[in-house]
Amino acid sequence: MKIRLDDIPENGLEVTFSGDRNILSQALEHISSPVGVGVDPFIKGRLILRETTEGIALTGKIRASLNLLCSRCVAEFNVDRNIDLNFVVNRLSQEKHVDQETCSGEADEIIIEGFEIDVAEIILQELLLELPMNPLCREDCPGLCPNCGAMRGSGDCKCPVEEVLDPRWEKLAKLSKK
Ligand SMILES: [Zn+2]
Ligand SMILES: [Zn+2]
After folding, report:
1. Does the pLDDT at position 136 exceed 60?
2. Each residue of 18-34: pLDDT tens digit?
3. Does one domain contain both 26 and 109?
4. Which structural domain range is residue 52 located in?
5. What is the pTM of this model?
6. What is the pLDDT of residues 86-118, one digit of tens each?
7. β-pair partners for 45
8. Fewest C-beta in 10 Å: which of 54, 121, 141, 153?
């Protein structure tokens, strides 16, 4: 989802999208995302790009569903996020000082090098900012037993409770992510 600066008409450009599986997956490959983050087909949003004296104003709302892996039990789970976007985009060579006094709201400035705005990447960066460092499928997820690999306290695990990290656990975690 790249938008050429030339394609933005004077009265602004509206971009809407809904349910396209590929919108963020390409962007996800380009930026170093936390392990285990996947983007669900469900994403929709509406953006407005408009030329202003401070640069290209990019505003809008996004609703997205992300697939995460629990950092304790490596189960997949989903989180939904609603994001408001409020940015001013400027080209590297034309970097203007965004005057916070006159700038409406608290738009963050984005500097781009070429003549295209990669909207998908901006959206994805914002989504990733919203995610916890160590995602949990639920607050009190007990995690996997390092001895038998079963969910702790699930009944499948009969091991005595001890806090020893077994190297096999790492292997199991990698396998589950595939
Ligand atoms: Zn979990
Ligand atoms: Zn066990």
Report:
1. yes
2. 876 666 766 666 665 56
3. yes
4. 2-129
5. 0.68
6. 999 998 875 555 554 444 557 889 999 889 998
7. 17, 62
8. 153
Q: How far is the CA of 174 from the centre of ligand 1 (A)?
A: 15
Q: Of the bound ligands, which one is closest to the alpha carbon of residue 164?
A: 2
Rg (CA), the chain: 21
What crossing angle do the helices spanning 22-30 and 119-129 adopt, rounded to 10°? 80
Average pLDDT of the residues in 49-77 = 90
Which ligand has the minimum distance to the alpha carbon of residue 36? 1
Question: Closest ligand to 156 CA?
Answer: 2
Same domain, 125 and 146: no
Same-domain status, 119 and 158: no
DSSP code of residue 164: -
Ligand 2 centroid to residue 147 C-alpha, Å = 5
pLDDT tens digits for 141-158?
999 988 898 988 888 888
Q: What are the angstrom distances between the C-alpha of 59 and each of 31, 55, 104, 105, 154?
A: 22, 12, 12, 11, 46
Structure tokens given for 55: 């640069």
Provide the domain count of the chain: 2
